[in-house]
Amino acid sequence: MSFNLQKISYFFSQFKFYLTLDFIALILLIVAIYKIYKNRISAKKKNILIAIVFSLFFALITFSLGEAYFRFIYDEPDGLGFLQVSKNWQTKHVVFNNFFFRDRNFEANKKEGTIRIGVLGDSITYGAGIENVDDRFSNILQNMLTNSGYNVEVYNLGKSGHDTEGEIKVYNDIKHLNFDILVWEYFLNDIEPIEQNKGTPIIDESKKRTRYIEFLSKQSYYFDFLYWRFSTKYQKTLKALRTADLNLYKDPKELERHEKDIATLANSIREGNKKVLTVIFPSMFLLGPNYPVSKKAAISPKDPVLTAFEHLASRFDQHPNEFVHNLAARKIFEKILPYLDDIESKR
């Protein structure tokens, strides 16, 4: 009962502007109809005026219903954080654990006989755009290994927005959990430095809109969704970000810095003879038969993930969807089995 009261209270607090506006519109509708009927004009003109008044009223009611839907019901992930509805998605589908990772609570002490696997990575590992964490590749891997008879714990260490530099800090903060195997997920934009990140100014510039558009977007989830749905700015921003990422690989100094970061992370993981498995997710926008690394990748160039663009989380989220996560989990499962068998043989 108290939960329902909280929901009702939240609804009224968030929607009082539109409720007030609709109430005022209803009063004005009644007054307008009354005045029209009292006015000494022809019946035809009265009918036209009444039709206009009713049309305006129902247009407002329709917009209010749309606003209620997008504000309280609809949710969609947004990889850039532009849309208001992405707040709903985060609230509904993201829960953090005792170590502030998007996973079940971690146990500090590892049980005897358990093989602990850490999955380190960025927003892909975190599961950006994935509603149910059980559909992420780390969780699918856990289930596959458990069903195959292995006594394992797979901990998801993904952090949205982190690059290799950030992952170094994440691992150093969490390595006391004593992992036996580290699965490291890598993506194209992980070359970005923490300081002077090239993507941040692009996103900040793309967020800018006229003062009136900005005001309306803040007041209305519905208007905000429609604006980004039909605006070309979103796709242009993604293209600019991809170009910025690729340009970093062409810069010798940036590439050298990044290689040092990778070496630092690798050396840190390998301390204590820990095993490392690296999985590289390809850029979904570079996929195709001529993708440079297709011939060397573990996944065949003929695989549908490399030829179709429908495997994105949503129109506003360019992260891989559940199909791709499932595919990645199966490939990791195949590669990690020898590591597990080797660990078990030495016990």
From TrEMBL:
Annotated Gene3D superfamilies: SGNH hydrolase
TM stretches of this protein: 15-36, 48-70
Alphabetized UniProt keyword annotations: Membrane, Transmembrane, Transmembrane helix
Keyword Coiled coil: no
UniProt protein name: SGNH hydrolase-type esterase domain-containing protein
Organism: Candidatus Curtissbacteria bacterium GW2011_GWA1_41_11
